[in-house]
Amino acid sequence: MLDIGVTKLLIIGGIALVVIGPERLPKVARMAGTLLGRAQRYVSDVKAEVNRSIEIEEINKMKAQFDDAARDIDRSVNDSMNQIGTGLDGSVDDGSSSGSSSSSIDPYLNGTGWEPPPPEYRHPGKKWRVKKGAMPQWYKQREGVRRHVQSGAARVQRHTPRRLG
C-alpha cells in the first residue's frame, strides 16, 4: 500500500499540531481514526461480497456439471434398460410361441403392471410425547417430591399465610 514510516508519521503529526492546535488535535485524531475504521470495514465488506459472488458462481458451475453427469447416467441407464427390455420381449415372444403359459412368466414382465402391495404401517405403540421419570410416582408421593410444575404466583400464594378474619 503506502510506504509510510515512523519518521513520516512524526512529521505529519508535528504539522497537524501546528496547524490544528493542541486543543482540537485529539478530537480530529479521534474522528480520523473512526473514519479510517469505517473505510476498512467497508473495504472488507466489499471483498467479502466479491468472494461470495465468486463462490456462488463456482457452485453454480459445479451444479451444472453435476446435473449434466446425472443426465448422462440417466440416459445410459435408460438405454441399457430399453435394450434389456427389448431382449426380454424377444425371449417372451419366443417362449409363448413354443407353448408355455403366460402364468409362468414373472408378473412384472408380462405388462399387467402388477406390483406387490406395500407393507402395512404398524404403530410402534410408544407414547413419544410422554416423559417418563426415573423415580416412581409412589415414591414421589411418599417423600413429598413435587410432581407438577407451579408458576411463581401459584407458589407464592401457596406459601403465604392465610388471614383468619
Q: Would you kindly provide a written description of the structure presented here, covering whatever features stand out?
A:
By secondary structure, the chain is mostly helical. The chain contains four helices and no strands. The chain has helices spanning 6-20, 25-97, 137-143, 152-159. It is a single-pass membrane protein.
Shape: flat
Task: Note poorly predicted spans.
Answer: 97-103
Average pLDDT, to the nearest integer? 81
Q: Count the helices. How many?
A: 4
Major sheet: none
Our measurement of the CA-to-CA distance between the termini, rounded to an integer number of angstroms, reads 86 Å
Given the helix and strand composition, which structural class is it?
mainly alpha
- N-to-C order of helices and strands: HHHH
Topology:
Elements: H1 6-20, H2 25-97, H3 137-143, H4 152-159
Task: Give the tags.
single chain, 165 residues, mainly alpha, 4 helices, flat, cell membrane, translocation, transport
